[in-house]
Each structure stands twice: as C-alpha cells, then as structure tokens.
Design a protein that fits this description.
The structure is a single chain. The chain is α/β, with parallel strands linked by helices and 225 residues long. It has one domain: Rossmann fold. 40% of the residues lie in helices and 18% in strands. A seven-stranded mixed beta sheet has the order 3-2-1-4-5-7-6, sandwiched between helices. Helix 1 runs parallel beside helix 4, helix 2 crosses helix 3 and helix 6 runs antiparallel to helix 7. The structure holds S-adenosylmethionine. The site of S-adenosylmethionine (SAM) has 21 residues, from helix 3. S-adenosylmethionine binds next to helix 3.
C-alpha cells in the first residue's frame, strides 16, 4: 500500500519578480471565473454591495473578475508581496477600475487592511502559502462583519504523488518552467479537506462548509458568525 502524500510547505510570499511576472501573465480564467460563479451560487441573496476584502490578492485577477460580476461593490485587495501587487495595480488601471479596487501591501497576520470590517471576505490560493493557516481564519473573524459571506478557494493536495504528476502534466505542461514548478510546489503545500476541518474547528468556524469543486480545488464557505 502506498502512503498518502505528506504536506510540504512552500515559501510564503511571492516576492520574486520573475515568478510574479509568470504568475500575472498566466491564464487563470477557468478557475477564477469558477470562483466568482460559485460565490454567487453559494450566496444567492447577497446584495453585492459594500466593501469586500480579498486576502492574498496577488495580481488582482480575482478582485477584477469579482468587481465586474458585482458592479456595486468596492474591493480592498491585500498581499504581502509588492512584486505581485505591481501587476495588479497595472491591470486595475488598464481596466479603469481604480475607483472600485484598491490594493494594499499587508502581511498577514501582522498588518491590517484599511477598514476595520468588511461586508464580504474572499481569498483564492492563499491558504496553502501561509506559515500558520490560523492567520487566514483569524483574519476572517477579525475583518468580516457579523453575517458577512466568506468564500475561500484553494488547491487540494493530491493523495498520491502519481496524481500530483498527472495534474502538473495536465494543467501546466505548456507553461513556463517557473510556473510549472510553482504549481508542483503549491499542490504539495496544499491541504486536504480533513486538515482544514480541524483548522476550522480550532478557529471556532465549525459551521463553515467544505466542498471539493474540481480535480484540484476545494472551497470553504460560510457566513461570519
Ligand atoms: C498563489 S498567489 C494567489 C494570488 C491571487 N489570490 C490569485 O488567485 O491569483 C498567493 C498570494 O498570497 C500572498 N501571500 C502569501 N502569504 C501571505 C501573507 N502572510 N500575507 C499576505 N499575503 C500573503 C503571496 O504573496 C501571493 O501573492
């Protein structure tokens, strides 16, 4: 019997300019559109206005898609890596959405976003980067208003090494080396749903739901209590 693949953490912040460029230029339209669609399906009664916090926003592709899907909201995107935020600032200007999306260099858990509390909290592909996963759940509790929708999507660690190799081949074969390497490391650093369940129990977010939504992604969602 082959043992399940252990988690191997990866570097937290994406501060390398070459890495940031490759990431910002990659096509994540499929998972990022799925992110927005699943948010809408999960919270069909959310009015779509107010201020939304995007934790670990990187080059802001998810913030941009979210802002276009919900034209009444404003978004604060936060990330600890300037190299990633630079790409986001350019993309926001190009799409003329500076009046609705603002980016801030914020390292979790030490620094804080500009508002004390938000009407919604979203995050894509941050959890597996964090040195301490509780930094994410603490941020959700601290910066989400009571009742605010919280929607987190992340990579799912494959059970076996062979599955990891298959996923890298399937989704990153034509990507630059640096991106293929990043994807490999990210899949190894990702959590399994049962590990996230323990994190949520520990954080007092037992009511949040976890669902596998593709061969490589899962979603954690709920309303801030
Ligand atoms: C894989 S990228 C995801 C970017 C974006 N959310 C997306 O889906 O395209 C992860 C981002 O989280 C940021 N990050 C990792 N640890 C962080 C921390 N402790 N505080 C703030 N940002 C962090 C990294 O710098 C990187 O930009």
């Amino acid at each position: 019997m082959t043992l399940p693949m252990e988690r191997v953490p990866e570097i937290e912040l994406m501060t390398d300019k070459v890495q940031a460029r490759a990431y910002a230029l990659a096509d994540f339209s499929e998972p990022h559109e799925q992110f927005v669609r699943l948010f809408r399906e999960t919270f069909p009664h959310w009015p779509g206005d107010g201020h939304v916090l995007d934790l670990g926003c990187g080059p802001a592709d998810v913030s941009l898609r979210f802002a276009k899907a919900f034209p009444k909201c404003c978004i604060d995107g936060v990330d600890g890596a300037e190299a990633m935020l630079e790409w986001g600032i350019t993309a926001i200007k190009q799409q003329n959405l500076q009046h609705r999306i603002r980016l801030w260099q914020v390292y979790l858990p030490d620094a804080e976003p500009p508002l004390a509390q938000y009407d919604g909290v979203i995050s894509n592909s941050l959890l597996h980067h964090l040195r301490n996963p509780q930094s994410l759940w603490e941020a959700v509790i601290r910066f989400g208003k009571p009742g605010a929708p919280v929607f987190i999507m992340d990579l799912l660690r494959p059970r076996q090494r062979a599955q990891l190799d298959t996923l890298v081949k399937q989704y990153a074969a034509d990507e630059p080396d640096i991106l293929r390497r990043d994807f490999y490391h990210s899949l190894r650093a990702a959590y399994r749903p049962e590990e996230v369940r323990e994190q949520l129990d520990q954080a007092g977010l037992r009511h949040f739901q976890i669902g596998i939504v593709s061969d490589r992604h899962f979603v954690i969602a709920g309303c801030r209590g």
